[in-house]
Amino acid sequence: MVIPSDEEIRALHRKYAPTPEAFALVYTHCEIVCAVAEQLLDRSGLALDRALVRAGCLLHDIGVYRLYDASGRLDHTRYVSHGVLGHEILAGEGLPETLCRFCSHHTGVGLTRVDIREQALPVPERDYVAESAEEELVMYADKFHSKRNPPVFLTADAYAAAVARFGEDKVIRFKEMRARFGTPHLAPLVSAYGHDLTGATDGAVRADENA
Q1: pLDDT tens, 80-131?
Q2: Fewer C-beta within 10 Å: the chain N or C terminus?
Q3: Check: CATH 1.10.530 for 6-210?
Q4: What distance in Å separates the CA atoms of residue 131 and residue 105, rounded to the nearest whole number?
Q5: pTM exceeds 0.85
């Protein structure tokens, strides 16, 4: 499988971003998720495909661009569909299914057909859960940064508290990923990007803001 370069991925973001502001928000988030994932890889010693993880991180949120309207506003009511929309974008670009899945299979800690049916979510009713270790790491790393306005980093405890509203099974799933990959050191990234760090005691955090 040919994995696109960072430059090729950045060009795809430029192609689909409706405004410079949307590009800056989404691509910066993807860069941060990549930095978190690579830090976790370095510390865990897990034998994952590093190039695949990097590409998955940089591509995972490209579908968000499809949710901007003509005035540049993001449609939060359909935000959960951004993964499926990203999968469609990458498939249309001829990228392999392995890469497309990083878009459709990173939301929350995994969407099941039961979640979709019970919550009446605006996506096709099927399972969107991480299957490979690389998919799981991209999904997990994504949980530590949110594209909310203004963007923020989240501690592991903050995300765990947020995801609890979706059921104990989601909390357990996040704990399993945390045990496998570890907890990232966010301070260097907070300093580098200038985004605040939100902890469990800093107020409510919506789990879908960094899905």
Answers
A1: 999 999 999 999 999 999 999 999 999 999 999 999 999 999 999 999 999 9
A2: N
A3: no
A4: 9
A5: yes
